[in-house]
């Protein structure tokens, strides 16, 4: 498939997700980086979004809980270019009943070439980057031309 270049805006739309065993770590991380996060649009799955909003006062657009479809809602927002950065504190030591949804979410982040942090150290590096406040370019699949070629 051909690729095109598109922009991630200076004001990012950030998805915040955490497995149960990592919710407190993500909440603390959001408190630590509240000033930067307040400059961007935030999305969160179910309980995670509520916890972040309650503890930080940040506005979070809350979706369904991950196992109830929230991971898939975020995946759709990534595919529709509404979310352009994913912070997902996942718990690699715990079994997750919705693991296929999690893998699909991470796959979509890779397909659409958005920055992803799956742990605190990587999230710290992303949030501290000078690119957090700048428009950046990325290559993505040229899906519209792909479809046009198939329908001709």
Q: Mind explaining what this structure looks like?
A:
It holds the Pfam family MGS. InterPro entries: Methylgl_synth, Methylglyoxal_synth_AS, MGS-like_dom, MGS-like_dom_sf. The protein has 152 residues and is an alpha/beta fold. It has a single domain (12-133), classed as Methylglyoxal synthase-like domain (Rossmann fold), CATH 3.40.50. Helix content is 43%, strand content 20%. It has 7 helices and 7 strands, in the order E-E-H-H-E-H-E-H-E-H-E-H-E-H. The chain has helices at residues 23-32, 34-37, 46-56, 70-79, 99-111, 120-128, 143-151; strands spanning 3-8, 13-18, 41-44, 61-62, 85-89, 116-117, 136-141. The strands form 2 sheets. The chain has a 5-stranded parallel sheet, with helices on both faces. The chain has a two-stranded antiparallel ribbon with strand order 1-7. It is globular and about 50 Å long. The two termini are 16 Å apart. The relative contact order is 0.22. The model has no long low-confidence stretch (mean pLDDT 93).
At the fold tier of CATH, the topology name is Rossmann fold
- Note the main sheet: 5 strands, parallel
CATH architecture: 3-Layer(aba) Sandwich
Q: What is the average per-residue confidence, as pLDDT, rounded to a whole number? A: 93
In which range does the helix fraction lie? Answer: 40-55%
Specify the oligomeric state.
single chain
Number of strands: 7
What structural class do you assign from the helix and strand content? alpha/beta
Number of helices: 7
Radius of gyration: 16 Å
By CATH, the superfamily comes out as Methylglyoxal synthase-like domain
Query: How are helices and strands ordered from N to C?
Result: EEHHEHEHEHEHEH
């Amino acid at each position: 498939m051909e690729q095109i270049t598109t922009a991630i805006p200076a004001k990012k739309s950030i998805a915040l997700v955490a497995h149960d065993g990592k919710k407190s770590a993500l909440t603390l991380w959001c408190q630590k980086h509240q000033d930067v996060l307040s400059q961007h649009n935030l999305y969160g799955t179910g309980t995670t979004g509520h916890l972040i909003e309650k503890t930080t006062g940040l506005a979070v657009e809350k979706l369904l809980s991950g196992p109830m479809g929230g991971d898939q809602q975020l995946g759709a927002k990534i595919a529709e270019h509404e979310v352009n950065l994913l912070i997902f504190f996942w718990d690699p030591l715990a079994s997750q009943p919705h693991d296929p949804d999690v893998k699909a979410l991470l796959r979509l982040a890779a397909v659409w070439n958005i920055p992803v942090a799956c742990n605190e150290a990587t999230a710290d590096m992303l949030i501290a980057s000078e690119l957090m406040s700048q428009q950046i370019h990325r290559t993505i699949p040229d899906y519209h031309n792909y479809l046009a070629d198939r329908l001709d």
